Amino acid sequence: MARDLLDLVWLVPLLPLLGAAMLMLAGRRIGEPKAGWLATGMMGLAFLVSVVMFFALHDLPEHERAHISNVFEWLSSGGLHVEMGFLADPLSVTFILFVTGVGTLIHLFAIGYMHGDERFSRFFAYMNLFCASMLILVLGSSFLVTFLGWEGVGLCSYLLISFWFERQGAALAGKKAFITTRVGDVGFMIAMFLIFLKVGSLDYSALGAAEGLASGTTTVIALLLLLGAVGKSAQFPLHFWLPDAMEGPTPVSALIHAATMVTAGVFLVARAHPYFEVSGDAMTVVAWVGAGTALLAATVALVQPDIKRVLAYSTISQIGFMFLALGVGAYAAAIFHVVTHAFFKATLFLGAGSVIHGNRDNQDMRVMGGYRKYLPLTAGAMTIAWLAIAGVPPFSGFWSKDEILTKAFLNDEYGVWLFGLVTAALTGFYMTRLILLVFGGTITTASLAASGDTPDADAHSAASQEPSANDHAPWDPTEPTVAFGTPPRAATVDQLHPPHEAPPTMALPVLALAGLAIVGGFINIPLKGLEFLTEWLHPSFADVHEVHPESFWEGFALAGVSVVVGIVGIALAVALYRKGLAAADRDPVIERLGPMGRVFGHAYYFDAGVSRVVGGPLHRAARWLSDTADARGIDGAVNGVGTLVQRAAGGLRKTQSGLVRNYALWIVIGTAALLLFLLLYAGR
Amino acid sequence: MESDFPILSALIVTPALGALVVMAMPARRPECVRLAGYVFSFAVLALAGWLLFHYEAGSGYQFVEREQWLGDLGVQYKVGVDGISLFMVALNALLFPIALFASANITERTKSFFAWMLALEAALMGVFLSLDLIVFFVFFEFVLVPMYFLILGWGHGRRTYAALKFFIFTMAGSAFLLVGVLVLAFLHSDHTGKLTFDLATLTAWAPEGLDPGAAKALFLGFFAAFAVKVPLFPLHTWLPDAHTEAPTAGSVILAGMLLKMGVYGFLRFSLPLFPQAAVDLAPLLLVLATIGIIYGAIVAAMQPNVKRIVAYSSVAHMGFAVLGIFALTTQGLDGGVFTMISHGLTTSALFLLLGMLYDRRHSYEVDAYRGLWKVMPVLGGLFCVAAFASIGLPGFSGFIGEFLALIGTFIVEKPYAVVGAIGVVFAAVYLLWVFQRTFMGRPTGENAKMKDIGFRELACVVPLLALSLFLGIWPKPVLDVIEPDVKEVIQQVERGSDYREPAPAFEDAPSGHDDGGHE
């Protein structure tokens, strides 16, 4: 019975895929709002099926909880056989539950958010396809099926980030996301080549073969997979596409950051963990990539003026936490954080969406303030999410973050643990800053200070901020993103149109997610008998040795430390931002950090540096290759030979200078001559 | 399963007959000419459909027909189809009706245009079906003539230059092929006393009978002709010019079919006839193919003309095909052949879409366009699909071909596969960049007034993209047919050389931690 049900697991990705197909073919006929409801309905159905899958899997004895359902043979060539197969095990079922669950809520929110957009149905087609790809990714029974979903996610992120393609920034950001993640995909692909060469199969059922391989091989495979994971999950050094991805509509940001895409890398490492486990070196790299990214991204988030940018860097930082966990072998803790992060980050993004939506698309926090009065529901939801991400007990983020830090400490990874602690403090700080700037203070404190600046001024400085070698058009003055260093826009709160709370279809998902952000942590409380998630995931990580605190008090003490640092971060931010900003262009944290503030603000100039190299020397090299080497060198040589022959054959000019089509005649004559020659030759 | 009906001859004769019928029609009745063109090309498509349906997977040639032709010369009319040529024939039969259907804008000298197109179809059928070297060569050469006149007669600005360049380039290559074919046959006749151009006879003799030096020289002679057609770096510069100036239908056939002649030639002739030389010289081809993948992609990104971008992308795509084929592994050859099929679908779709833009604005300059997606949602969407299919996104046919070609290469020669995999990123760069510059942004001026795709145009593009999607999701039916003959080619190479295809997998698994000692 349970197995019969699990055979239907392919329904989970198929439902949103069908939705996407219907909306692409007949979207305009379906129209608004039916298109949105159709897409949301498909996601809801997929969620229901996922719940059924959960119970079906739960019915099986623990050691049998890995069911493969092969739909058809995808490709077979020589010794390579790949089934279009879907693997239902605790890991994948956990993912499909929150992808479909959170995904449904975000779809619901988007119905209101995208109201009136001229490409309303197409938006939902992409959203459904995005979720379907993510579901294929996590359910795939082999690396190649996962890769199918993996690239599908890349495609949809491109389409959705560039959704408002009329805007230059959106068009560029989508392309950047796709190409940057594709750099990582090269690693994924080569890893697959190597696995096939060494193991002879790309199926996950052959993962166990990792133990039989030479350790050098597994390290290479693991690091190549990590490169793929780093690209999709926006970890250093392939992290810089994510902040730009904010150009997409806010529900897209929520989907990318919470339910799909960035968690794909975490999934991949967790799924392929036998390769990482065998190679200790790869584990160390994973842990430090995570810890380093977590810390660096948190420092960048400290000083950003754009509400969505803070959240973007916060995501990079939180995913860093997950990689940190993976690197110390705490897979269940990493997945736990994926789930809680999905809840509170989706809340934060949808909340931010409500703030922006209700405020004429303004994203500059420096000219916000006092919005709790206008957006009480959003304020409440975001406050909950803030406490969750800052690690305040008993909110969900506390439990998962604490578990990661505890596991890092218990695995004797003290350096990584320290990085994590500092990050936790910084997280408390920047999230408190965000909340206080948006909802705290009074409207007048900030909004009036920036008067005198004309909107034109920021358009110009934005253009000078981000030079782009290949763009022919000036930057669109309506670009919403507020880069660090841009002067604040003029006061935005219009007495006639104050910020307003969103309609119920938008408020409901935010509240539901906020509720989950409160209770989400209770699925895995680090006490005997209450570690539901860890126990549930155990069959997927049965080969991994988990460490536990030696006593209740050891765990308690470690939890205490992580709470205290979080509180310290919060307290510092409260001290600085309690009264809001003195003036819109005077941010206390930037003033106190001095030159470091600028470094943080420009994200260590990493993105700018990459752009400079790509737009400068690399672009020039490509230009040289095309205009000089190809056009003048190779083709020039060809034409040169042609001219030479022509001159040398000057005497023959008369026969050749007539119509060019003479040449065609010559071939006919030549062919005839050939046949004649053959006839004569054979005739002898 | 031999049928009495000479299906393969019918595939060659039907379009040729069509060309004659069209020529006999009065020039002032273009609508009749069109109708005749459609009828004949669809008849060929139907025949190819019948062939596809009745072909049974398995190694060796089927539906073989042979007639003594110039008996004394050893030239015979011999045609046959195997799993490799089957899909080339099918692709040919599919692309011509589409290319004709997409030629509604050809209003001048419609009659000659349709006649040349049908003649071209017949010649291409002959190329992929001939099993006699002389007959093959004649068809191979004859392909040039209609294509030359198509570019010259209905091309754009610098068509004279482009047509001549195309002609001379490929002619120069073919000269070597002709000499190679003749020398091979004469050497064979010197040894056996029997003059023949029969591919099977020569294949049986050449690997053993030729001395290594001669084999190498002959391989290079064949190589010259095929490498120009592929085109391999650095023999590619005729392609962008020919593409840019050719009419849409010409570009479709040029990319879809003509380039395949080169890759097909390597597979059908170079490998079986000169296996040891092929094995020895494979590194040269692998290097050129890999350079082509990277070089084609980088140069494509820098082109100011959309057709040139797609033309250079063909250099990169064909690089994958050649890479896979000279990897000499089952996956590699499967991938190479699959890439040929896939490239025929996706690149043709791209050229058709670019032709639609040209019909509206009479420009192929990237800078002329902006924000088209807003005014042409359907055409923009299809272009996006075609671009991602061409990029090799999993789910489309391009991925299957590239992935198999690369994995097949990786098994034997890791560095080429790694560099080739990096080329996959570049493909995304040039196509997304051109898509961004032409279809994204805000349309202004004339761009704001462009009309979205029409029904006829839709009917041309959608089948190609649908097929690419279908083959990406379910490539198995095609792979199952290709594979026996691909294996046959590898066995021919193994029989005639010291090369052995490496057995997949378990390279160091049984021995366990063989280099784990350093820990």
Describe the fold and architecture.
Mean pLDDT of chain A is 83; it is low at 444-477 and 653-660. Chain A is mostly helical and 684 residues long. In chain A, α14 runs antiparallel to α18. The relative contact order of chain A is 0.08. Chain A is built from 28 helices and 2 strands. Chain A has a two-stranded antiparallel ribbon. Chain B has one domain. In chain B, strands 1-2 form a two-stranded antiparallel sheet. In chain B, α11 (248-273) packs parallel to α13 (306-327), α12 packs antiparallel against α13 and α12 (275-301) runs parallel beside α18. The longest helix of chain B has 34 residues, at 159-192.
How is this fold's topology laid out?
The complex is a heterodimer of chains A (684) and B (519).
Chain A: H1 2-6, H2 11-30, H3 34-59, E1 67-77, E2 80-88, H4 90-113, H5 120-139, H6 143-161, H7 168-199, H8 215-232, H9 241-244, H10 250-259, H11 262-271, H12 273-278, H13 280-301, H14 307-327, H15 331-357, H16 376-389, H17 396-410, H18 414-439, H19 443-447, H20 455-465, H21 504-519, H22 532-537, H23 552-577, H24 588-593, H25 595-601, H26 606-648, H27 653-656, H28 662-683
Antiparallel strand pairs in A: 1-2
Helix pairs in contact in A: 2-3, 2-5, 3-4, 3-5, 4-5, 4-10, 4-15, 4-21, 5-6, 6-7, 7-8, 8-11, 8-13, 10-15, 11-14, 11-15, 13-14, 13-18, 14-15, 14-17, 14-18, 15-16, 15-17, 15-21, 16-18, 16-21, 17-18, 17-23, 18-23
Chain B: H1 7-24, H2 30-54, E1 62-70, E2 75-81, H3 83-101, H4 110-129, H5 133-142, H6 144-154, H7 159-192, H8 199-209, H9 212-229, H10 238-245, H11 248-273, H12 275-301, H13 306-327, H14 330-361, H15 372-375, H16 377-391, H17 397-412, H18 414-439, H19 455-473, H20 476-495
Antiparallel strand pairs in B: 1-2
Helix pairs in contact in B: 1-2, 1-4, 2-3, 2-4, 3-4, 3-11, 3-14, 4-5, 4-6, 5-7, 6-7, 7-8, 7-9, 7-10, 9-11, 9-12, 10-13, 11-12, 11-13, 11-14, 11-20, 12-13, 12-18, 12-20, 13-14, 13-17, 13-18, 14-16, 14-17, 14-19, 14-20, 16-18, 16-19, 17-18, 17-19
